[in-house]
Design brief:
40% of the residues lie in helices and 12% in strands. It is of the alpha/beta class. The chain has two domains: 8-46 and 292-400, Aspartate Aminotransferase, domain 1 (Alpha-Beta Complex), CATH 3.90.1150.10; 64-287, 3-Layer(aba) Sandwich (Aspartate Aminotransferase, domain 2).
Length: 402
């Protein structure tokens, strides 16, 4: 009988921790447990009706065949218009690439550009998939820490210290998953001053949560505020978060044409084109009414305020207030070393998350999965009723620690 053996490349990576927590929570629910899962980064709003209608019309028109591998012309034009309208960035359609979700955009960029030994600076805390996609592409992730005291943001001196002659990329994510931190235009300019001194370094900026901003925060992206970096910046986005289209699987990016062409070669031999119907839905998302976006952001802000207040009322937890996205990233430093009702000593944020799930049936993702401990991530993309109950359970769990 043949024995399967993983490739050496696959052995370098691990499964997504956030997906693993969500799967464990679903399994406990199937067992009859009343688990509240706050692990998934998925808006609880429905996809707007006009977008769904556009998909149905596309089906009825017969838009059900293969398309260009990196997106239909109509969607590329909508993306060009979006970048001009919202970000002041000028691109041609030949500088645009569409993929089946945001992850493939990053993966394709890494696969198209990295050689063994190339380094990619990944600011921590980071979205869990960044380092593993770098590893899959043969590169080496280099972690640069954004401390809680600096708002979880990368400081210019930290970036400078992380750059070596082997650095190929730096990944910026604003608003951030997992911390909700958002860079100001001035903060991006300061990072840009560092990057201007290192012309071998390319910039991938993940703007997926661009429209989920709070307290009147004005959004900026680095190619917009540091035009000198335009020729080596890949600006990526998607329709998943702002338009509640996670299952439609459309991510997109714009950048230098040689990079876009190289990514197209990867796409042609891997996924091929994104779903044709989802592409037409994305055209309507980008071109259609946008008025619901600030309304939904206001709901997220109200949820944020609820969660931050309740978590800061939990013994041993300190929860900073994020500027965007729909996550909080609280510290559990005050819970380390304490004992649970079952006699377990909490020695790490992973212990904290595991014991919280066991004792109070609340699923969260431990901070080590995002490269910075001792923290955990909560997604508040769910109702206030659910969030209130979950945070009450967290307060009860923390109060029970000895």
């Amino acid at each position: 009988m043949a024995v399967f053996s993983e490739s050496e490349t696959l052995k370098r990576v691990k499964p997504s921790p956030t997906l693993a927590v969500s799967a464990k929570a679903r399994e406990l629910v199937r067992q009859g447990k009343k688990v509240i899962s706050l692990s998934a980064g998925e808006p609880d709003f429905d996809t707007p009706e006009n977008i769904c209608d556009a998909a149905i019309k596309a089906i009825k028109r017969g838009e059900t065949r293969y398309t260009d591998v990196d997106g239909i012309p109509e969607l590329k034009l909508a993306i060009v218009d979006k970048f001009r309208r919202e970000n002041g960035l000028e691109y041609k359609t030949t500088q645009v690439s569409v993929s089946p979700g945001g992850k493939p955009v990053i993966y394709n960029a890494m696969m198209a550009s990295l050689n063994p030994g190339d380094e990619v600076i990944v600011p921590a805390p980071y979205w869990v998939s960044y380092p593993d996609m770098v590893l899959l592409a043969g590169g080496t992730p280099v972690f640069a820490i954004g401390e809680m005291e600096t708002g979880f943001k990368l400081k210019p001196e930290t970036l400078e210290a992380a750059i070596t002659p082997k650095t190929k990329w730096v990944i910026l994510n604003s608003p951030s998953n997992p911390s909700g931190a958002v860079y100001t235009a001035d903060e991006l300019r300061a990072l840009g001053e560092v990057l201007k001194r290192h012309p071998q370094v390319w910039i991938l900026t993940d703007d997926m949560y661009e429209h989920i901003l709070f307290d009147g925060f004005e959004y900026a992206t680095i190619a917009q505020v540091v035009p000198e970096l335009y020729e080596r910046t890949l600006t990526m986005n998607g329709v998943s978060k702002a338009y509640s289209m996670t299952g439609w699987r459309i991510g997109y990016c714009a950048g230098p044409e040689p990079l876009i062409k190289a990514m197209s070669k990867i796409i042609s031999q891997s996924t091929s084109n994104p779903c044709s119907i989802a592409q037409w839905a994305a055209v309507e998302a980008l071109n259609g009414p946008q008025d619901f976006i600030p309304q939904r952001s206001a709901i997220f802000q109200k949820r944020r305020d609820l969660v931050v207040a309740m978590l800061n009322g939990a013994k041993g937890i300190h929860c900073p207030t994020p500027e965007g996205a729909f996550y909080v990233y609280p510290s559990v430093a005050g819970c380390i070393g304490k004992q649970t009702l079952s006699g377990k000593i909490i020695t790490s944020d992973e212990d904290f998350a595991g014991e919280l799930l066991q004792q109070e049936e609340v699923a969260v993702v431990h901070g080590a999965a995002f490269g910075l401990s001792p923290f955990f991530r909560i997604s508040y993309a769910t109702s206030e009723v659910v969030l209130t109950e979950a945070c009450s359970r967290i307060q009860r769990f923390c109060a029970s620690l000895k």
